[in-house]
Design brief:
Order of helices and strands: EEEEEEEEEEE
Strand content: over 45%
Helix content: under 10%
Number of strands: 11
Oligomer: single chain
Number of helices: 0
Distance between the termini: 40 Å
Radius of gyration: 13 Å
Structural class: mainly beta
Largest sheet: 7 strands, mixed
Shape: globular
Length: 113
């Protein structure tokens, strides 16, 4: 059974940066496609970025430029770097394992001065 544990969220001022991490259990992490989603208060969960087992990335059109997804297969971890944070980035950020359909518990990101 795959478990995903996110970390790295917190309170940050506008313009700041955060790096979220998602540690995955289970075997053959390197073969699994992964993704980050987010859900803002009162809104539907939305896709932020995906990364294939080969490292190819894709981003939501509205979020291109400030978000970077990456992975370290040796550490069974996928990352989401967020730069130039805006108040509208406030949300719970979730890690998702495309290959097995598993969600993490989420990590809260709050952007406020």
């Amino acid at each position: 059974q795959v478990q995903l544990v996110e970390s790295g969220g917190g309170l940050v001022q506008p313009g700041g940066s955060l790096r979220l991490s998602c540690a995955a259990s289970g075997s053959i992490f390197s073969t699994r496609a992964m993704a980050w989603y987010r859900q803002a208060p009162g809104k539907q969960r939305e896709l932020v970025a995906t990364i294939t087992s080969a490292g190819s990335t894709n981003y939501a059109d509205s979020l291109k430029g400030r978000f970077t997804i990456s992975r370290d297969n040796a550490k069974n971890t996928v990352y989401l770097q967020i730069d130039s944070l805006k108040p509208e980035d406030t949300a719970v950020y979730y890690c998702y394992d495309w290959s097995v359909g598993s969600w993490g518990q989420g990590t809260q990101v709050t952007v406020s001065s």
